[in-house]
Amino acid sequence: MAAQARKGGISLPERRNPKKEDEGVIAKLSQSQVVVRGKQAANDAAFVTKKLMKSTGKAAWIAGTTFLILVVPLIIAMDREQQLNELELQQANILGTSAPPPK
């Protein structure tokens, strides 16, 4: 009597045979040559994009720091020169003398 099956218990699904002939349509499609090559192409594209983004970031960093080190001080110096020229011109106009020749 102890060997009788209990009623109302949980029954597990039957195990399927893992043969290729028993696979579903989705499993067959996901293993097709077109899908495999498509996945490989997507992986290759992602790899190239990642490398390109990394090298682009490095190039942007180099360009940005070079701009800050070389160009920004030049712009500041040119602005100071322009302000000095304008100040000399204003002083010459106030004093009534002729403006000094531009440099």
Brief overview:
The protein is mainly α and 103 residues long. Helix content is 67%, strand content 0%. One of its GO terms (biological process) is intracellular protein transport.
Record field, number of beta strands: 0
- Specify the helix fraction band: 55-70%
What structural class do you assign from the helix and strand content? mainly alpha
Query: Which strand-content bin applies to the residues?
Result: under 5%
Q: Helical stretch count? A: 2
> How many strands, what sense, and barrel or not for the largest sheet?
none
| Spatial separation of the terminal alpha carbons | 116 Å
Secondary-structure element order, as H and E?
A: HH
Low-confidence stretches: none
Layout of strands and helices, then pairs:
Layout: H1 25-30, H2 33-95
Organism: Prunus avium (Cherry)
Region (Disordered): 1-23
Transmembrane segments: 59-78
Structural overview:
The chain is mostly helical and 103 residues long. It has a domain of 71 residues. The longest helix is centred in the middle third of the chain and has 63 residues. It is rod-shaped, with a radius of gyration of 39 Å. The relative contact order is 0.04. The model has no long low-confidence stretch (mean pLDDT 82).
Task: Throw out a few tags for this protein.
103 residues, mainly alpha, 0% strand, mitochondrion outer membrane, transport
